[in-house]
Amino acid sequence: MPQLNPSPWFFIMLTSWLTYSLIIQPKLLSFVTANPPSNKTPTTLSTTPWTWPWT
Protein backbone atom coordinates (compact mmCIF):
# COMPACT_ATOMS: atom_id res chain seq x y z
CA MET A 1 0.00 0.00 0.00
CA PRO A 2 1.71 3.23 -1.07
CA GLN A 3 -0.23 5.33 1.46
CA LEU A 4 1.83 3.85 4.29
CA ASN A 5 5.14 4.82 2.75
CA PRO A 6 6.02 8.19 4.33
CA SER A 7 8.91 8.87 2.01
CA PRO A 8 7.26 11.16 -0.60
CA TRP A 9 4.44 12.48 1.57
CA PHE A 10 6.58 13.58 4.47
CA PHE A 11 8.74 15.74 2.21
CA ILE A 12 5.66 17.32 0.62
CA MET A 13 4.12 18.04 4.02
CA LEU A 14 7.36 19.46 5.38
CA THR A 15 7.91 21.73 2.37
CA SER A 16 4.37 23.05 2.39
CA TRP A 17 4.47 23.67 6.14
CA LEU A 18 7.78 25.52 5.91
CA THR A 19 6.52 27.54 2.96
CA TYR A 20 3.47 28.55 4.91
CA SER A 21 5.23 29.36 8.16
CA LEU A 22 8.26 31.14 6.70
CA ILE A 23 6.87 32.94 3.65
CA ILE A 24 3.11 33.27 3.64
CA GLN A 25 2.39 33.79 7.34
CA PRO A 26 4.67 36.84 7.87
CA LYS A 27 3.18 38.47 4.77
CA LEU A 28 -0.33 37.95 6.11
CA LEU A 29 0.52 39.17 9.59
CA SER A 30 2.07 42.38 8.28
CA PHE A 31 -1.29 43.77 7.22
CA VAL A 32 -2.84 46.29 9.59
CA THR A 33 -6.46 45.71 10.41
CA ALA A 34 -8.87 48.33 9.13
CA ASN A 35 -10.67 48.61 12.44
CA PRO A 36 -8.23 48.05 15.32
CA PRO A 37 -9.78 47.30 18.71
CA SER A 38 -9.94 50.21 21.09
CA ASN A 39 -9.48 50.31 24.84
CA LYS A 40 -12.36 52.68 25.44
CA THR A 41 -15.02 51.55 27.84
CA PRO A 42 -18.51 51.43 26.35
CA THR A 43 -20.75 54.22 27.53
CA THR A 44 -24.17 53.32 28.81
CA LEU A 45 -26.97 55.56 27.72
CA SER A 46 -29.50 56.63 30.31
CA THR A 47 -32.89 55.94 28.82
CA THR A 48 -36.30 56.68 30.18
CA PRO A 49 -38.98 54.03 30.11
CA TRP A 50 -41.70 54.32 27.51
CA THR A 51 -45.01 55.56 28.84
CA TRP A 52 -47.76 53.60 27.19
CA PRO A 53 -51.02 55.54 26.72
CA TRP A 54 -53.27 52.68 27.98
CA THR A 55 -51.51 52.18 31.33
Automatic annotation (TrEMBL):
This protein's GO CC annotations: mitochondrial membrane; proton-transporting ATP synthase complex
UniProt-listed Pfam families: ATP-synt_8
Keyword entries, A-Z: ATP synthesis, CF(0), Hydrogen ion transport, Ion transport, Membrane, Mitochondrion, Transmembrane, Transmembrane helix, Transport
GO biological process, one term: proton motive force-driven ATP synthesis
InterPro entries: ATP8_metazoa, ATPase_protein_8
Broad class of where this protein is predominantly found: mitochondrion
Top-rank taxon: Eukaryota
Residue intervals passing through the bilayer: 6-24
Compartments it resides in: Mitochondrion membrane
Membrane topology listed for this record: Single-pass membrane protein
A GO term, aspect molecular function: proton transmembrane transporter activity
PANTHER family reported in the protein's UniProt record: ATP SYNTHASE PROTEIN 8 (PTHR39937:SF1)
Entry's family note: Belongs to the ATPase protein 8 family.
UniProt protein name: ATP synthase complex subunit 8
Organism name: Petroica australis (New Zealand robin)
Gene name linked to the record: ATP8
